[in-house]
Automatic annotation (TrEMBL):
<feature type="binding site">
    <location>
        <position position="178"/>
    </location>
    <ligand>
        <name>substrate</name>
    </ligand>
</feature>
<feature type="active site" description="Proton acceptor">
    <location>
        <position position="36"/>
    </location>
</feature>
<comment type="similarity">
    <text>Belongs to the ribulose-phosphate 3-epimerase family.</text>
</comment>
<keyword id="KW-0464">Manganese</keyword>
<dbReference type="GO" id="GO:0006098">
    <property type="term" value="P:pentose-phosphate shunt"/>
</dbReference>
<dbReference type="InterPro" id="IPR000056">
    <property type="entry name" value="Ribul_P_3_epim-like"/>
</dbReference>
<feature type="binding site">
    <location>
        <position position="9"/>
    </location>
    <ligand>
        <name>substrate</name>
    </ligand>
</feature>
<feature type="binding site">
    <location>
        <begin position="198"/>
        <end position="199"/>
    </location>
    <ligand>
        <name>substrate</name>
    </ligand>
</feature>
<keyword id="KW-0862">Zinc</keyword>
<dbReference type="GO" id="GO:0046872">
    <property type="term" value="F:metal ion binding"/>
</dbReference>
<protein>
    <recommendedName>
        <fullName>Ribulose-phosphate 3-epimerase</fullName>
        <ecNumber>5.1.3.1</ecNumber>
    </recommendedName>
</protein>
<keyword id="KW-0413">Isomerase</keyword>
<keyword id="KW-0119">Carbohydrate metabolism</keyword>
<dbReference type="InterPro" id="IPR013785">
    <property type="entry name" value="Aldolase_TIM"/>
</dbReference>
<keyword id="KW-0170">Cobalt</keyword>
<feature type="binding site">
    <location>
        <begin position="143"/>
        <end position="146"/>
    </location>
    <ligand>
        <name>substrate</name>
    </ligand>
</feature>
<feature type="active site" description="Proton donor">
    <location>
        <position position="176"/>
    </location>
</feature>
Length: 219
């Protein structure tokens, strides 16, 4: 099993041919499928919901990494579990009761992630570290694919990596937004374990993009 993981974001795929796109990244060796759910309230855009995930679940064996950009996601956790999520990530800023929300994800037997927006400090995680499997550091403001990577994320990743190491916590760091073949090296060096990429995977030769990303990962 690889240490580092590539999670292509289907937000950048052509939804008309979603199935083909997913097969292509799966066959090329991508590890997770990053699935961006947007509600038009927590973030400006609306993307898609559980029924779409349910349809693609029948055709794919990949780990479904569901990123909920949704107000009070606690309301929908069962739906996403039933649709086929393996990992559910919620935004700390979108949960009135983050601890309860994370506990519910774990009760459903899923892996739990907590995401922080660019301006949200790491201290938000202080009393939740022991309950989670992954932290998702946003390197853009959530809501759209194709934005530029915010360099402030690099410092945050480094500091988080240090905290996790010091406390001997087995938590993955996922980074999402504006990652390309030109900056992925820095992101990995800062301490990322899981790399999300939408535009940079689905624009152009998908198979080649996946292989190029994976060959940027340390061996
Ligand atoms: C942003 C989403 C990201 C996005 C990444 O709100 O959470 O997952 O799809 O797309 P790129 O890689 O194009 O920034
Ligand atoms: Zn995402």
């Amino acid at each position: 099993i690889d240490m580092y993981k590539l999670a292509p974001s289907i937000l950048a795929a052509d939804f008309w041919r979603l199935g083909e796109y997913i097969k292509e990244v799966e066959e090329a060796g991508a590890d997770y499928l990053h699935i961006d759910v947007m509600d038009g309230a927590y973030v400006p855009s609306i993307s898609f919901g559980a029924p779409v995930i349910k349809s693609i679940r029948k055709e794919s064996k990949m780990v479904f990494d569901v990123h909920l950009m949704v107000e009070e996601p606690i309301r929908y956790l069962e739906d996403f579990k039933e649709a086929g999520a393996d990992i559910i990530t919620v935004h700390a800023e979108a949960c009135r009761h983050l601890h309860r929300t994370v506990a519910k994800i774990k009760e459903l037997g899923l892996k739990a992630g907590v995401s922080l927006n660019p301006s949200t400090p790491l201290v938000e995680l202080e009393y939740i570290y022991q309950d989670i499997d992954m932290v998702l550091i946003m390197s853009v403001n959530p809501g759209f694919g194709g934005q530029s990577f915010l360099p402030l994320a690099l410092d945050k990743i480094k500091t988080l990596k240090e905290i996790l190491k010091q406390r001997q916590l087995n938590i993955d760091i996922e980074v999402d937004g504006g990652i390309t073949l030109s900056n992925v090296g820095e992101v990995l060096k800062a301490g990322a374990d899981v790399i999300v990429a939408g535009t940079a995977v689905f624009n152009g030769d998908i198979k080649k993009n996946v292989i190029d990303f994976k060959s940027a990962f340390p061996k």
